[in-house]
Amino acid sequence: MALLRGINVGGITIAMADLKDVFTGLGFGNVRTVLASGNVVFDAGTADTAESKARIEAALRARFGYEAFVFVHDQAAVAAVVDAYPFQERDGRHAYAVFVAEPAVLDELAATTADLDPAVERVARGDGVLYWDVERGQTVRGAFGRNLGKPRYKAVTTTRNLRTLRKLQV
C-alpha cells in the first residue's frame, strides 16, 4: 500500500479516480483508494517497496506536477503497526501512527518527546513509527504536533489515524 503525504490539503488536490489511474498505469493490480487523503491499496507483484516508491513518486510528479512524498508498506507491516499501538484508545483522543522514513529522523523526533504533557499528548517509539496519542483539538497545538509540522520533516514523515490504517487492511 502507498500512503501519500499532503494530498487534498494545502492546495494539492487529486481526485481519487485520477490517483487510481496512475497506479493502474504503472501496472499495479487490484488498485483501490481509501478515503480522499492519499491512501492506495494495490498489488505490487514482485516489486520491492523501494522500487515501487520511486516509480510512484515519479509518476505523480509527471501527472500532477507536485513533489510527491510516498510511503510504501506491505499489508503485514501496517497490520503490525496497528497491533503494536501501545496506548489505550479513548474517547476524546486521537490515536496516530507517524511513519518515519529515515532512522536518524525517527531518533531525532523520539528525543523531543521527553517533556510532553501526558494529559495532552503521549508518544512512544515503534518499529519505523512513532505512536502518538493526543487530545482532540490539540493535534497542531501540542508540542509534538508543532514539532512534527516543521518543513524539514515533510519528505520523511506521514501520519495516519489508526481508524484509517484499519480501513486499509484487506
Profile the largest sheet. Answer: 4 strands, antiparallel
> Low-confidence parts, pLDDT < 50 over ≥5 residues?
none
Helical fraction equals 25-40%
**Beta-strand residue percentage:** 15-25%
Structural class: alpha+beta
Head-to-tail CA distance between termini: 10 Å
Total of helices: 6
Rounded radius of gyration (Å): 16 Å
CATH topology of the largest domain: Alpha-Beta Plaits
What CATH first level of the largest domain would be assigned? Answer: Alpha Beta
The succession of helices and strands, N to C, reads EHEEHEHEHEEHEH
Oligomeric state of the chains?
Answer: single chain
Q: Name the strands of the widest sheet in spatial order.
A: 2-3-1-4
**Average of the residue pLDDT scores:** 92
Just name the CATH architecture of the largest domain. 2-Layer Sandwich
Count up the domains.
2
Q: Tell me the total number of β-strands.
A: 8
> What's the CATH H-level superfamily name of the largest domain?
bacterial protein sp0830 like
Shape: globular
Overview of this protein structure:
With 170 residues, the protein is an alpha+beta fold. It contains six helices and eight strands; from the N terminus they run βαββαβαβαββαβα. It folds into two domains: 71 residues, Alpha-Beta Plaits (2-Layer Sandwich), CATH 3.30.70.1280; 83 residues, bacterial protein sp0830 like (Alpha-Beta Plaits), CATH 3.30.70. The strands form two sheets. A four-stranded antiparallel beta sheet has the order 2-3-1-4, with helices on one face. The protein has a four-stranded antiparallel beta sheet with strand order 6-7-5-8. β2 and β3 form a beta hairpin. The longest helix has 16 residues.
